[in-house]
UniProtKB/TrEMBL annotation:
It comes from Pseudomonas mucidolens. Residues 1-53 form the Carrier domain. This is Non-ribosomal peptide synthase domain TIGR01720. PROSITE patterns: CARRIER (PS50075), PHOSPHOPANTETHEINE (PS00012). It comes from the Bacteria. The keyword Phosphoprotein applies.
Amino acid sequence: MGVTDNFFTLGGDSIISIQVVSRARQAGIRFTPKDLFQQQTVQRLAMVAEVGEPDGLGEQGLVSGVSALSPVQQWFFEQEIPERQRWNQSVLLKPLSPMDPQRLEQALQALISHHDGLRLSFDPQTLTASYRALEQQQPLPAPLWHKTVADLDELERLADQAQGSLGLEQGPLVRAVLFELPNAEQRLLLVVHHLVVDGVSWRILLEDLQDAYKQLLAGQAIRFSPKTVSFKRWVEHLQAYSQSAALLRQLPYWQAQGIADAAQLPCDNPQGSLQNRHAQTVYTRLDATLTRQLLQDTAAAYRTQINDLLLAALARVVCRWTGQHSTLIQLEGHGREELVEQLDLTRTLGWFTSMFPVNLTPAAGIADSIKQIKEQLRAVPDRGIGFGLLRYLGDEPTRQVLSQCAVPRITFNYLGQFDGSFDAEGGVLFVPANEAKGAEHSPLASLGNWLSLNGQVYGAELTLGWTFSAQMFSEPVIQRLADEYASELEQLIEHCCQPQHRGLTPSDFPLANLSQQQLDELPVSACAIDDVYALSPMQRGMLFHTLYEPQGSSYTNQVRLDVEGLDPQRFQAAWQATVDARDVLRSSFVWQGLEHPVQVVHPHISVPFTLLDWQGRADLVAELDARALAELEQGFDLMQAPLLRLVLIRVDARRYHLIYTNHHILMDGWSASQLMGEVLQRYSGETLALNAGRYRDYIQWLHRQDAEASERFWKEQLLTLNEPTHLARAIAHTPVAGLRALYGEQRQVLDESITQRLRSLA
């Protein structure tokens, strides 16, 4: 992996981003999942990352007291669910070497002590959760059962008992069973109630359980990584944000998603039972080659993430099945979003899942479908967490409005890649086992939806399960859907892996304010675009004047220098490295057909560098002046980057004359000095620190400013002025006969003492 490799083209996703942030923070490097999504490469991430102890760690002691419920927990208690205590998530594992029951029990107890969420109890009447004190925990049954079984049937029977052994009000919420098999192998079943665990939590839980057990094997005391923000504090944060004006502005978006026609499915028996006892699951599978291509080779074509392609394929298949132009999908996200306040949740256990409806409308063609679905997903505010906040924590009118919206009949949840959690090279203690692990839900409880798609990557292969009720759908119908989905995914993968298929969408360039059509019509190929953003006010002014006077040279700057002992090749390389490092130097400008001009940053631009040998020229000075004038008069085509040129002319054995010409729209005087300094540093072999920022950061800052407030401020400041200040009137002078009004220049040099006093004052 290189420092410029893109996170998403390497197969990264939102869940992996949380793991990356967590590992980095353990190493003393701080950045957020949002930073990783925005910067996408190690090189760019280094510009925003900080080194040192993380801020805002959670309480390192035991969390206590009463907590309100999160939106998804409130959704759980709103449903009619028989045997609520049996709504679990579980894994059955195969230890790679025999596990000692006593050490395993110690590790589990330490895990429950460390992760406060595992000590919760729930009150369905008050819709609250309470943290149990450890001394109250002692009378509870031990979290570990150690069982010897005669065969796999007995294993399944005992596993089913374990699935039903949890309790919401009195506990426990965690059950582990270590099975001893007749062939001397072991199996470890871990069962956790879904109210306190989700997909990200499982990765934390399995990592910590293994670390604790390994420490005990080595005779060490158990030490976990520091806690992050508690689930209790997170819910308090959600409650505060749910009353904000920013969140309320999302309401029209969520109302628009609830389109009834898009929610309809051609169900064989809509009145059929949706109970778990009628559940069946069929599968869509991609082999290792297709999975690798999906994860690593497809993202570059349209700057997508894996969910974009999975949902583009799903929308196309479902719309063909229903005959509708769009389909309403309930998406599930990890829910650990950065809202107003940055709270570190990377190592917090809990049910954070966000569930939200999205109306997806594919196009006729593959390329347009990918672009449209990608944009529809990017339009989801706050990655979907706002729907649950408004629906369950909003005021009464808001909750009523959203409760009456159309309900999606398809749920989609991509759980990410699990190979990293069971990497043998990483010293794992166990891997997933294939035997039956008992029923996680009561057979009388309802399925999560009419159709539920749950996908994950394990063993380098993508598997998506389609779960449905056999009382409502026939298995051949759903199997055909699953097969068509596999075929559609293969077509999308093949399309994206062909180099001629490249495309950009408006969400790639949020500072440009361009439509899809305007992006498609840019006079630059997609592969030659790194970024697109608006111009600063000063740049807009310069562009206007340059277009108004195309033959003028008012904004063409030139520097001429005599340099001795220069290595031309090394000098050229230093300039090229500097242009590679500075995005603004790789910018061109586009205005034709656009309401507002934009600047286009190119991924790589070769520096125009002309090397001439004029030794022995008779009229050298005049020829140098003529060449410099020609460079000025040539000017620049603002649509062609780079807007700078270098001419290096050898005038004798050791001396060179440099003519450096550039357009002022790229940089100001201070920046020009900075540029020359960086070139000379690189020329001398210095390694420069990564740039602290990019020009786009300034454009983004401008976009965030309150223009109306600025206008009010300056109007107040200038209110008493009704005419320009004329310098001539302010200076007493004696009229000089015959003196005409002319422009002039007066220079004044301040001595060292005054200069030092000015610096001190500043």
